[in-house]
Amino acid sequence: MYTEIKSYRIFLDSGSQKNRSFTTINLYDTRDEVLGVLQFFEEGTKIVEPIDFDRFYIQYPISKFSYIVDILRNEKPIFVGYWENKYGKYGRICTGKEPVGEGELHASIFNSQVVKT
Predict the structure, then answer these.
(1) Of 8-17, 60-69, 94-103, 105-114, which has the strongest mean pLDDT?
(2) How far is CA 52 from the centre of its chain?
(3) Which residues pair with 84 in a beta bridge?
(4) Element spanning 35, H or E
(5) Residue 105's pLDDT is what?
(6) Lowest mean pLDDT: which of 3-7, 31-35, 81-85?
(7) What is the mean pLDDT of residues 71-79?
(8) So which domain of life are we looking at (predicted)?
(9) Which of 22, 55, 113, 114 could connect to 13 by a Cys-Cys bridge, CB 3.0–4.6 Å?
(10) Number of domains comprising the chain
(11) What are the DSSP calls for 68-91, one per residue?
(12) Cβ–Cβ < 8 Å for 115, 30
């Protein structure tokens, strides 16, 4: 299931704590409530998943940070999906469908799957 991202906030923390994400992006829905958190880690960091039942966490290598920020700043609409099953956890950030070379298109390919909040 996909939910549209309406806004985001970037956090660039500092510190010396090990196995912690110091770069995170909170994703917000239409009610301005946190949908989930994108966490960025240095390659090889042991990831300790947070236990929080009100939101999801998606982990990325820090090398993907600039790509994710670019999508958040320049694309619209943007959706997030998150699933858990017997194989593990899976998250995705994706844009709406648009024709090649046509610029922005504000129609979604996810109309039947979008959660209206």
Answers:
(1) 60-69
(2) 16
(3) 89
(4) strand 34-41
(5) 54
(6) 81-85
(7) 92
(8) Bacteria
(9) 22
(10) 1
(11) HHHHHHH-SSEEEEEEEETTEEEE
(12) no
Q: What does the alpha-carbon distance between residue 69 and residue 76 come to, in Å, rounded to a whole number? A: 13
CA gap 58, 89 in Å, rounded: 9
pLDDT (average), residues 88-110: 73
Find tokens 């700043």 and name the residue.
Answer: 73
Q: How far is CA 76 from CA 51, 93, 98, in A?
A: 30, 12, 10
Contacts of 3 (CB under 8 A, 6+ apart): 29, 35, 79, 80, 81, 114, 115, 117
Averaged confidence pLDDT in the chain: 81
Q: Is the link from the previous residue into 77 a cis peptide, with omega within 30 of 0? A: yes
pLDDT band of 80, cuts 50, 70, 90:
very high
How many Å apart are CA 18 and CA 45, to the nearest integer?
8
Range of the domain at 89: 2-115
